[in-house]
């Protein structure tokens, strides 16, 4: 029992939390931005898979790691544009379109991957992002190892959360996005174009999702395999609800989920005797559902979420 | 010498499919004027104002503001030109603050931060200058309807509007709020603003406007200086014929059909109805008058089978119970005209014929061994359309496409066609225009003559006076003792509506 608690005092656990949380932070922020403008983007799972492959492929073909992330963001944005085109001007069902985008992006990803690397018994690897120790801070005992020896994209994820929070809360653009998610007619009546705002939000959000996926192949692992996103996209969708559509809480939620995940990994080694490891794998998901039930009762859903906007209609 | 008009619409035509919503409309607005745009529902008033503001693009014609032609279809251009619009359905975001709602669209989208402090100062100044007090940091969802409207007006003023268009501004307001609004509007014209307000209510047009333009069937049919006209003339111009609201003829009431004895309805801590008693007799109309929000909704639910009494009993059709199910009521020939026809009265997505038979689909005439007999349903619906003069409808028309008045006629027809014993009519003419009101009143009186017991819940004093045999007032969930219509003058009813009736019982 004590050993199970001792895990919390190891710096490696906390280091792992940030690492595991990074793709979730990007993905959750991306989904949150889309939803704040009033559009659910269930294409996230596919867009993350796509981002993972595209970034990896760019680096594998000789590109820089950062170029890899940029290409992933661009491709994610393009799939976002497709989702936006179908759901905003055409007003199609956001559920169906999103799931379609996920299927399309995932299959296309695998297709392109197989096409460029027809034979591979073990997946080829790249040289991933290395931990970037922040001078000074990383020398602090415990905290240094836990928080300040991460790879660069992890710091970027936290920065992205801060920027998203600032933009949404403090800038005219953020107000326009929030208002579009609440009542697009109000936006139009004040002379702005809610359709453009929605499309923009979806493109930016989808780009963030793809960067989240790219982190998996450029930092967590060093190779690509088609099933690697493993439902992280769906977790992000749940985290948005958990976070009550607030970027700060989204960061917190992603970290909490990552903590459960990192903990169960270590717990598997501590607990002895006959407990199937799948039970441990379930822990973060079960706890997430519990947390979701507790938190979402107070959640504040954007009023116009999933309501297509058509000019001149009420 | 007259100054040039601030706003000029010329030759505006707009078609939606086959429907000509605006047919070659021209009108102008002068500086400092309070112009009323009067017309029935569906006359094209809102379409015209939406073209003016750039929500719609006209098929032909042009809009000039302060002499310059406005580019069509661009609300931003209209705002730029100093035109503000207060929509009938408020365009506010409930989860955001007043200040957020006012500031949206006023700053460049590329800015790193939003200048909220000067904005708050400007808003507060405007609010004080025009007597439109509202807390800038309050959430819209916490505001009353009247306060929300103030925010809508402030939004336009904040953007330096010099012309303000108000689309049916009093539709959702109480009488007191409406009077206050018109007072504010008059102060605004004194400071040089020019206003257009859309309405179908004659009394407010007479009371508030300086000039009236009357629209009918998408055309301008007349224009009057308010001082040179009267209600009767305006009514006739608006409807196109003389409209006379019918009045009740004396008639002896029969046996009690529906009654409530000491009924209370509580929900958690809140008491929605408090020890109310009433009885409705065959061939009479019992009017329940009161300012909306005093328990009418609960009373409506209780009598429509959607709520049960916590204490006390209801008696109907020889049965006494805490409440009846909608099924019981339909079986016992009760007709129900719910308060909100769009959400409770009809299903907008379905055709008129489907809505016509909704309550009676299990009757043998409408189904054969579990299959809908479409022909019988359509025939029945066509019969309703003919008998109750439901305009613009065929059995296959989508119900959403009907105007409010015609939808209400469909609901009435569906209920009255089978000579019900008991009818609940909850705010039956809310939002309807003169022609439709007269039609609804005529039908209700005909049902009374045929022996129905009618419970009329309304906040319209004229309506209750014209139709009811007896009147009870509802205040904070309590009902006054009934007063015979012959003894009810408007002063007495006014006192009753203010909750002053105690002591009279003893007398």
From TrEMBL, chain A:
Molecular function per GO: transmembrane transporter activity
CDD domains the record matches: TM_PBP1_transp_TpRbsC_like (cd06580)
A Pfam family annotated for this UniProt entry: BPD_transp_2
Transmembrane portions of the chain: 12-32, 39-59, 65-86, 98-117, 155-177, 197-221, 277-296
Membrane-related topology note: Multi-pass membrane protein
Location(s) in or outside the cell: Cell membrane
Keywords carried by this UniProt record: Cell membrane, Membrane, Transmembrane, Transmembrane helix
GO cellular component: plasma membrane
Position of the signal peptide: none
Domain of life: Bacteria
Matches recorded under InterPro entries: ABC_transp_permease
Name used for this protein in its record: ABC transporter permease
